[in-house]
């Protein structure tokens, strides 16, 4: 008996292995959930936030406008304030109370958040670290002192202070579309931030007896009420930063008359607070392409020597900002220049304020770095919309709308190290960049630090690269996160962790998300797709409140890339990348095949392919006289297997039957000459780290030439532990390097290399036949045992 086999042929240069066998040999344990959709992990889309990642047609957000007067008492180091707040309820909900943040209570030892951390006895301690325990705790005098809380008519409002939060109970329900106006008077003692820490406070310069004030988180600020959380009134501990609403600000700051003040927004009365010379210089700086000193170094040094008792009031206005911060000192040198944002033709005043201690660095670089930052961020996100961008040297780093505080001081002789210079540039770029994340693209920092710090650190890296291609960026490139990813699992947390609960805060909130975005841009998506999607996210959520799902969904929606596997692994997981070259099989073709052997395959018919167990349904179906079974008598008569499976056809299982393989033809002399130098390479990879990534290879050949190839991460989708890649080359491979540019954050590069002389290699041969086309159907040869279903022409 002769049977004909018809199967699909494989190309001469294709992988000749039976991949299904790999799956059979490695059953379900190879498949986890790395490529499953995030599904219910992400919040359900609704009318406020769509499945595409865009704001929905029902999106809303509340608003607060502020009119604030502040008085800085330098002698007492006390700040006194009075504010009128107009709060707009744009939500569909009725509100019977509102929440405000009293962040300065962080410095109080009795009204802080009360989030203790573990403490131990030190083997050695300094006198400053040694604090005698005094219980009960006595009030240290810091924190907000509320003097009056009233409605617009002066009627007292009922309120409750819970640590760093204040709830005001409304006299009547605030309905959708209504506004509520209230007033708060308060004061607080300004803390020495160099000793007590925190973002705001004063720094004292004992050599000249002056203070430099950074006034931040200084007024009672509205909490966010949102569709995704309700009131964001989590306590402020000093780490998890701020969730704030947008609004317009008018702020009057009364300070000693010899102080120079910088603040969020535009100053509206420079003609009243500056000298005629300073005002003239400011007007020149408004049109200058290089920084011009508005307050000179000599003027700042002179002001340090005389502490005026006179007062001046500086008036600032800012529109569509979420916060207001300011700085004040008689020590300031002040310079500025105009920078134009090409995307919207916005003419921005870039400025810097700094004491003489940082003159050697800030005069050279600060304002230029401010201008470079807002221009570069505008390219990658949205055009910078504000009229001002300012950098203040204050020995720390913190950001607010249109103003930020940075470090960068020289030695006493004016010299500085390369490390100090680059550190200063990095922090200026980072803090100015925060104007975009989160000051405009207004994420909830109290919950998701990475949406602020991580996205900003990524864009900072792009900006540093455009400042100087050799800039020693510490965060962003994939290889810089490796030391963190190598840590034991009990020292790692998912990026998707609350700000207060992260142990390795810097790597987890800053470096890892920034690195992930860089890997997406350079390795997974490509720059064109990534940049379009990232700009889409920035545009969609500018001046709104985005959540993580809005970013994840927008990046996929605007690019057409399924990235759920990446969000799952990089943001929700802690597995590192460690892909290893396990083995390389080198095979050469067997060109001297016997034509007869190539054309025939010995075959034994297998046992009948009927079910080995007669299940209940089959038995009942046969017993049911109402069931008529389909029978094609003609085909039943012709089909060998129909009768064979039912015992109507007998086969001698000890006898070998010959199958003609018409398409398996020997190579002729011309073909042999063409393919004699072909070598096949099967590279076996092992996923040791757990996090899937693209497989990127650099082949180096014996003639010195190189070839690069990349397989998308989806190569792991059917087997997350082991995969193989097969290549055929017409020249010999000398070595193979996995991830040659260190772009996947692989934590162990020692297992990323194979050479023809010193690595695990298995030698083999493969049969090479000539293809034959018949009737448009590609037919091919087969070796080994053939399934009867294939022999019958079935698939």
TrEMBL record:
<dbReference type="GO" id="GO:0042277">
    <property type="term" value="F:peptide binding"/>
</dbReference>
<dbReference type="GO" id="GO:0016020">
    <property type="term" value="C:membrane"/>
</dbReference>
<dbReference type="GO" id="GO:0043171">
    <property type="term" value="P:peptide catabolic process"/>
</dbReference>
<protein>
    <recommendedName>
        <fullName>Peptidase M1 membrane alanine aminopeptidase domain-containing protein</fullName>
    </recommendedName>
</protein>
<dbReference type="InterPro" id="IPR027268">
    <property type="entry name" value="Peptidase_M4/M1_CTD_sf"/>
</dbReference>
<dbReference type="GO" id="GO:0005615">
    <property type="term" value="C:extracellular space"/>
</dbReference>
<dbReference type="InterPro" id="IPR014782">
    <property type="entry name" value="Peptidase_M1_dom"/>
</dbReference>
<dbReference type="GO" id="GO:0070006">
    <property type="term" value="F:metalloaminopeptidase activity"/>
</dbReference>
<keyword id="KW-0732">Signal</keyword>
<dbReference type="Pfam" id="PF01433">
    <property type="entry name" value="Peptidase_M1"/>
</dbReference>
<dbReference type="InterPro" id="IPR050344">
    <property type="entry name" value="Peptidase_M1_aminopeptidases"/>
</dbReference>
<feature type="region of interest" description="Disordered">
    <location>
        <begin position="772"/>
        <end position="795"/>
    </location>
</feature>
<feature type="domain" description="Peptidase M1 membrane alanine aminopeptidase">
    <location>
        <begin position="372"/>
        <end position="570"/>
    </location>
</feature>
<feature type="signal peptide">
    <location>
        <begin position="1"/>
        <end position="20"/>
    </location>
</feature>
<dbReference type="GO" id="GO:0008270">
    <property type="term" value="F:zinc ion binding"/>
</dbReference>
<dbReference type="GO" id="GO:0005737">
    <property type="term" value="C:cytoplasm"/>
</dbReference>
């Amino acid at each position: 008996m002769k049977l004909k086999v018809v199967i699909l042929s494989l190309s001469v240069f294709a992988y000749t292995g039976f991949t299904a066998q790999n799956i059979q040999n490695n059953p379900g344990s190879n498949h986890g959930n790395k490529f499953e959709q995030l599904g219910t992990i992400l919040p359900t889309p609704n009318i406020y936030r769509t499945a595409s990642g865009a704001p929905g047609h029902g999106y809303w957000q509340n608003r607060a406008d502020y009119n604030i007067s502040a008085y800085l008492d330098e002698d007492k180091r006390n700040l006194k304030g009075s504010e009128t707040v107009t709060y707009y309820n744009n939500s569909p909900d009725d509100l019977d109370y509102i929440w405000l943040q009293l962040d300065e209570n962080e410095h109080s030892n009795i009204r802080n958040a009360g989030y203790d951390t573990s403490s131990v006895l030190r083997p050695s301690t300094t006198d400053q670290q040694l604090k005698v325990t005094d219980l009960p705790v006595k009030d240290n005098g810091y924190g907000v002192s509320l003097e009056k809380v009233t409605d617009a008519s002066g009627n007292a409002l009922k309120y409750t202070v819970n640590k760093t939060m204040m709830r005001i109970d409304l006299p009547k329900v605030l309905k959708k579309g209504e506004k509520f106006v209230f007033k708060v008077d308060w004061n607080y003692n300004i803390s020495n931030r160099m000793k007590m820490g925190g973002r705001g406070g004063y720094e004292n310069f004992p050599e000249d007896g002056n203070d430099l004030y950074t006034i931040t988180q200084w007024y009672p600020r509205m909490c966010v009420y949102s569709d995704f959380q309700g009131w964001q009134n989590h306590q402020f501990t000093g780490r998890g930063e701020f969730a704030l609403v947008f609004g317009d600000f008018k702020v009057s700051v009364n300070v000693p008359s010899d102080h120079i003040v910088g603040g969020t927004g535009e100053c509206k009365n420079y003609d009243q607070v500056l000298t005629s010379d300073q005002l003239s210089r400011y007007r020149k700086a408004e049109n200058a392409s290089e920084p011009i000193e508005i307050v000179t170094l000599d003027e700042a040094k002179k002001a340090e020597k005389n502490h005026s008792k006179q007062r001046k009031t500086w008036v600032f206005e800012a529109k569509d900002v979420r916060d207001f911060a300011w700085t004040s000192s008689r020590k300031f040198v002040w310079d500025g220049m105009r920078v134009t944002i090409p995307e919207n033709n916005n003419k921005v005043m870039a400025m810097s304020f700094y004491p003489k201690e940082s003159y050697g660095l800030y005069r050279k670089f600060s304002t230029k770095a401010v201008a470079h930052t807002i221009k570069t961020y505008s390219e990658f996100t949205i055009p910078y919309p504000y009229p001002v961008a300012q950098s203040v040297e204050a020995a720390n780093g913190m950001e607010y709308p249109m103003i930020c505080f940075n470090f960068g001081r020289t030695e006493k002789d004016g010299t500085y190290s390369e490390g100090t210079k680059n550190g200063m540039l990095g922090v200026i770029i980072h803090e100015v960049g925060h104007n975009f994340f989160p000051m405009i693209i207004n994420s909830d920092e109290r919950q998701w630090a990475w949406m602020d710090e991580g996205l900003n650190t990524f864009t900072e890296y792009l900006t540093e690269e455009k400042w100087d291609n050799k800039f020693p960026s510490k965060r962003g490139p994939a290889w810089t996160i490796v030391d963190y990813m190598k840590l034991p699992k009990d020292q790692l947390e998912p990026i998707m962790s609350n700000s207060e609960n992260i142990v390795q805060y810097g790597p987890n909130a800053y470096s890892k998300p920034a690195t992930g975005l860089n890997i997406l841009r350079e390795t997974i998506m490509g720059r064109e797709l990534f940049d379009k999607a990232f700009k889409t996210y920035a545009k969609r959520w500018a001046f709104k409140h985005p959540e993580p799902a809005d970013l994840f969904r927008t990046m996929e929606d605007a690019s057409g890339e399924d990235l759920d596997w990446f969000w799952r692994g990089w943001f929700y997981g802690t597995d590192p990348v460690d892909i290893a070259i396990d083995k390389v099989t080198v095979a050469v073709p067997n060109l001297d095949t016997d034509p007869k052997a190539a054309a025939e395959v010995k075959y034994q018919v297998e046992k009948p392919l009927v079910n080995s167990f007669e299940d209940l349904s089959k038995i009942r179906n046969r017993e049911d006289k109402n069931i008529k079974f389909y029978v094609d008598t003609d085909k039943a008569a012709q089909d060998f297997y129909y009768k064979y499976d039912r015992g109507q056809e007998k086969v001698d299982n000890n006898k070998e039957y010959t199958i003609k393989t018409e398409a398996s033809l020997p190579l002729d002399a011309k073909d042999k000459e063409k393919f004699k130098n072909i070598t096949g390479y099967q590279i076996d990879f092992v996923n040791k780290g757990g996090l899937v990534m693209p497989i990127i290879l650099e082949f180096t050949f014996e003639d010195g030439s190189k070839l690069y190839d990349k397989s998308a991460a989806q190569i792991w989708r059917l087997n997350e532990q082991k995969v193989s890649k097969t290549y055929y080359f017409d020249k010999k491979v000398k070595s193979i390097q996995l991830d040659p540019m260190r772009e996947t954050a692989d934590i162990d590069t020692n297992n990323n290399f194979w050479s023809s002389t010193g690595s695990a290699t298995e030698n083999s041969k493969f049969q090479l036949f000539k293809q034959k086309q018949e009737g448009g159907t590609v037919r091919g040869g087969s070796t080994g045992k053939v399934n009867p279903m294939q022999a019958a022409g079935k698939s």
